[in-house]
Amino acid sequence: MVAPPILRVRDLSLHYAAAGGRKVRAVDGVSFEVGRGETLALVGESGCGKTTTGRLLVRLARPDAGSIAFDGAEIAAAEGEALRGYRRRMQLVFQDPGSAFNPRMTVAALVAEPMHLAGVPRAARAARVAELLPMVGLPAEYAGRFPHEFSGGQRQRIGIARALALRPDFVVLDEPVSALDVSVQAQVVNLLVALQQEFGLTYLFISHDLRVVRHVATRVAVMYLGRIVEIGDKAEIYRRPRHPYTRALLAAVPSHRPDVPARLPADLGEVTSADAVPPGCRFHPRCPHAATLCREVDPMPTALGGGHEAACHRVGELAA
Amino acid sequence: MAREPSSRERSATDLPDGSAPGPVPLLSVRNLRVTFRTTRGHFDALHDVSFDIAGGQVLGVVGESGSGKSVMALALMRLLPDDAGRISGGRIAFRGRDLTSIDEAAMRAVRGREIGMIFQDPTTSLNPILTVGHQMREGLRLHLGLGRVAAGRRAEELLGLVRIPSPRTAMGRYPHELSGGMRQRVMIAMAIACDPTLLIADEPTTALDVTTQAGILDLLRDLRRQLGTAIMLITHDLGVVAEFADEVQVMYAGRIVERAPVRRLFAHPAHPYTQGLLHSMPALEEEDPPVLPAIPGMVASPFAMPDGCPFHPRCALAADACRDAVPPLRPAAPGQSAACLRLEAAMAA
After folding, report:
1. What pLDDT is attached to residue B16?
2. How do residues B27-75 score in pLDDT, each as one tens digit?
3. Which of A55, B3, B99, B194 has CB atoms 3.0–4.6 Å from B113's, for a disulfide?
């Protein structure tokens, strides 16, 4: 079940014009809630709109339509001073923080930058930096070094320290460990989980890696072509996935058990582009269960109990 | 028609770990060393690497950044960037010839004809301003001496073989008009055009979505069955290796630290690094412990390699002797070898 939500999203959309006048429905009517202190994972293939959704929530982009209630306040259309106030409480961590860092800034300056922009006095900034570096597992003597002197894992620790500098409530983590080596990935995952517990953070964890998601998520939302097609508690999604797309995604993850014969998922073909969303259910061209209804009518989410929902006409017929 | 080496042929050189000689391998690498010169000095990206690939075998090569796995692929193809890296020792015996000593013209004939290559990002290997059909025909005319019409027919056939839905339409497309998965299929079609005996695939599915990856792995599995091609599959993804490889070679800091048949490796990893890698991966099928057992620290810089075993600073089992000398690969079980002084302790753990 959902903890009291810190974030309530309703009918969120962002469409934009692509080359040739086609309309890309990047986010196309998305509704969900994020409970305080939980991790909602947003999963799906590239182009499904998960990154755009994350940017909309922290208002780095402005939605065309829909509502974003953050801690009770409507922020979908907020601007200026009001928006800056909310932004301090919502931060974003990118996949490769290295590419976003100014190479001429020291670690201390990078971590202090959000505080500088927010008008935090110099002495308080320095004190906070001294607190943050050990918190993310970086020795204090690294403060004077430059980003290029660090490995990917260390740069991600700097990115996390920067995101936490202003003591946010809500952090969007966009593929935070995808660029890291396997042996370092586990370290950063452990760090994120520990920081969440220590500071009561709420995470939106955007990832294509269903192993990492199983480890970190409280609940999971599966996106396909701008829509959430299934959402529910992690245990439900992994043990009893109900949407054919969720099932296909899970079946496609290579197992670590060479003794188990490969579960060959049905060849789904490739995702259709978000500038050519098919009529009816948007998954129907790739769905092994598609029927006439699926080609004509866009399915609404069906409640399956315990907050589990799937947007599939045939969810009742498909074995749970 | 699978190419099985006949059993009377025997390897001329045993592997340094003393494992029994098998049939003559397709590829036999001995003491391969690659040295990079940089503004900060010289370092060896590959140290005395020795291994074999048998005809028709799929060898998975697993490692993280800095492990030397991609440098190894480039060295085998003699595609190391001239100004930076060079083969500074060792031999690469491929079908009876030493690839380190043949001239560039002979090497060009090997590349593409006898050894095919697939890279992570097909866009770097496809010319953006030529149609898929044009590029494929050129390759076929160059390598196989086919005429224009025959080359076109063969190109279409190859695109069908890699399961591109309408090959004729695809021939008229430019690379950017295809999805990532389709571009990778075109790359595979070009790599197998000359019916190579060995395919080197460097992270062929890393840039792809998991559903697309499943399709490409399925295709490679099928091609291997149909054509009998040996495949060296380089990846950081243990899951890909588990599904696809016959044998696995684990690399760390420019060295092979373990080699084993795939089932053995996943059930009984011998080297502490392999064990650490397997334990640190979150599970898909069950709940993990709340804290993932991570390997502490990180790979040392090639300019500041520790003495002795390169993994010792991160290894829970490290003893004084591990700091003194680089441990050689030695047998751990039939078909399995690992480069660890504390192998017995590691395997008992």
Report:
1. 56
2. 999 999 999 988 888 899 999 999 999 999 999 999 998 899 999 999 9
3. B194
pLDDT tens, residue by residue, B88-128? 999 999 998 999 999 999 999 898 889 999 988 777 778 89
Question: A262 CA to chain B: closest CA distance, Å?
Answer: 6
Angstroms from A85 CA to nearest CA on chain B: 34
Mean pLDDT of B12-35: 74
Q: Which residues of A touch B218 (CB under 8 A)?
A: 264, 267
For tokens 């009893």, name the residue. A240
Counting Cβ atoms within 10 Å, is residue B172 exposed (0-12), middle (13-18) or buried (19+)? exposed
- Chain B, nearest residue to A234 by Cα: B287
- C-alpha span between A258 and B332 (Å, rounded): 20
- B336-338 and B330-333 beta bridge pairing: antiparallel
Please tell me if residue A181 touches chain B, with a CB cutoff of 8 Å: yes
Q: Domains in chain B, start-ordered, CATH in brackets?
A: 27-245 (3.40.50.300), 272-348 (no CATH)
Q: Tell me the nearest-neighbour CA distance from A77 into chain B, angstroms.
A: 33
Which among A152, A221, A220 has a CA at the least distance from the CA of A187? Answer: A152
| Whether B244 contacts B58, CB under 8 Å | yes
Q: How far separated are the first and last CA of chain A, in Å rounded?
A: 19
Residue B209 token pair = 């979505």
Q: List chain A residues with pLDDT less than 70.
A: 1-3, 259-272, 320
CA distance B171 to B152: 9
Residue of A95, A156, A270 for testing the chain B interface, max B β-carbons within 10 Å: A270
> Which of B69, B179, B210 should we substitute to test contact with A (largest number of A Cβ atoms within 10 Å)?
B210
Answer yes or no: do B238 and A186 touch at CB < 8 A.
no
B210·A151 Cβ contact <8 A: no
Could you give the CA distance from residue A315 to residue A294 in angstroms, rounded to a whole number?
A: 12
The tens digit of pLDDT for each residue in A27-52 reads: 999 999 999 999 999 999 988 999 99
What is the residue-averaged pLDDT of chain B?
89
Cβ neighbourhood burial of A317 (10 Å; 0-12, 13-18, 19+): exposed
> Which chain B residue has the Cα nearest residue A263?
B243
> Which residue reads 């590419």 in tokens?
A99
Complex ipTM value: 0.88
Architecture in CATH of A5-310: 3-Layer(aba) Sandwich (3.40)
Closest CA of chain A from B93, distance in Å:
30
